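Backbones bend. Shown next:

***
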Amino acid sequence: MHVPDGFINAPVSVATGAVAAAAVAVSLRGARRELAGAGAGGVAGAERTAPLAGLVAAFIFAVQMLNFPVAAGTSGHLLGGALAAILVGPYTGVLCVSVVLLMQGVLFADGGLTALGVNITDMAIVTTVVAYALFRGLVKVLPRRRRSITVASFVAALVSVPAAAVAFTGLYALGGTADVPIGKVFTAMVGVHVLIGIGEATITALTVGAVIAVRPDLVYGARGLTKPLELRTSPLATPADEPTPADEPAPAAAPAPAAPAPVAPRRSVRRVWLAGVAAALVCAGGISYYASASPDGLEKVAHDHGIDAKAEDHAAKDSPLADYSVKDITDPRLAGGLAGVIGVGATLAVGTGVFVVLRRRRNTGADEQPATAERPSENV
């Protein structure tokens, strides 16, 4: 659903750019809280959350290369808003998808540069907000089980895709450059994207379910499912409320050793991170060669209904990685696979860098706050 340059006029493009910039600014503040508190242990949990957020962005980039057929001559691909929001939180999810869209537009000429605000608004903000709101509502009414998280993920992802199609139709009604009946655009966009939503829901549910199966503590949307740490007494100790037999003398009272404070075990995320990177590289570097070559839902609708009448060439059309292929490499499998690997690496580096900076800024603020709060008490 990447909107090219020329589909939406300049005033609406500028307006959506302002909306996208404001949403990203709000998400930067919200992501600091999510990165600091998503893991068990508060700020310490952020040490593992930031790299995972970068991994989510790289994984979404990779899976977006896997177009799957949905109808005759039409394909679809993951949007990723629901997946990102459920795995790392809604604010961080907006940033993840925004990083993906930025990398795609700048490096691969996928999605117009003047339409970047339109794409972020449609594919990052709308999908994330709709999906996470629906997900949280479902989690509240469903049984508190891991399976409920997977079911809620499926439904939220399914609805988020046609919601993005509706949002695009609204933007096109405001600033479309071609004279096309909006009713036809709405019917065609929503119809094909309901089918694409089924694929989105399947990918999202499988991914969330796989992570929950091995590390539910790493899934932002599954907070509260893991049991809190409990102290257990030795089975050899006599319970305090159990009466001592009358024919046995009462044992001499002995001072009980101080029980150590419960400490949450630190579990490494290295294996999960490595598995995620490997999966992204396999998808982008290998499986993407077998992706459907049919146009995606927006491209098909635009071609059939004349929305693309005033489409413009991409400013980065001569990029060495344009169209997800390395320039001057004649073997299409090698060119596409190498471009995918480069994209995964670049998205992982940029995404991780952004979230590590956010985490450090949040940690710095958390470290300074207690010292400031204690100053009044020193004067008492």
Residues 332-378 form the longest helix (47 residues).
